[in-house]
Write a structure and sequence with these properties.
mainly beta; seven-stranded mixed sheet; four-stranded antiparallel sheet; 11 strands
Length: 116
């Protein structure tokens, strides 16, 4: 499984960005997917996760009500709609996928910078 993120960039506080994660390879084996982020000098933290069918989602408290995770299994794509962005959201955002073989794959990351 290969994962490629896109959509990061520089945005002012209060603005919006939409991240995309495109999966390729053995996508039939992908179950749960998620977005994680690593801010400068900090560990990588979970932002949001979504179940295989998309019916169940989970969010970090810090992004609840502002971020929305979704996926399109036909196009093997996952999204993160980020609204009301804050300076504290500045980080490298990573896409992750877990397969039914219990393998975990990561993308290369995309930088999100929010200016205050």
């Amino acid at each position: 499984v290969q994962l490629v993120e896109s959509g990061g960039g520089l945005v002012q506080a209060g603005g919006s960005l939409r991240l995309t994660c495109a999966a390729s390879g053995n996508t039939f084996s992908i179950m749960e997917m998620g977005w994680y982020r690593r801010a400068p000098g900090k560990q990588r933290d979970m932002v949001a996760t979504i179940s295989g069918g998309g019916g169940s989602t989970n969010y970090a408290d810090s992004v609840k009500g502002r971020f929305t995770i979704s996926r399109d299994n036909v196009k093997n794509t996952m999204f993160l709609q980020m609204d009301s962005l804050e300076a504290e959201d500045t980080a490298v955002y990573y896409c992750s996928a877990r397969t039914f073989y219990s393998e975990v794959y990561w993308g290369q990351g995309t930088q999100v910078t929010v200016s205050s």
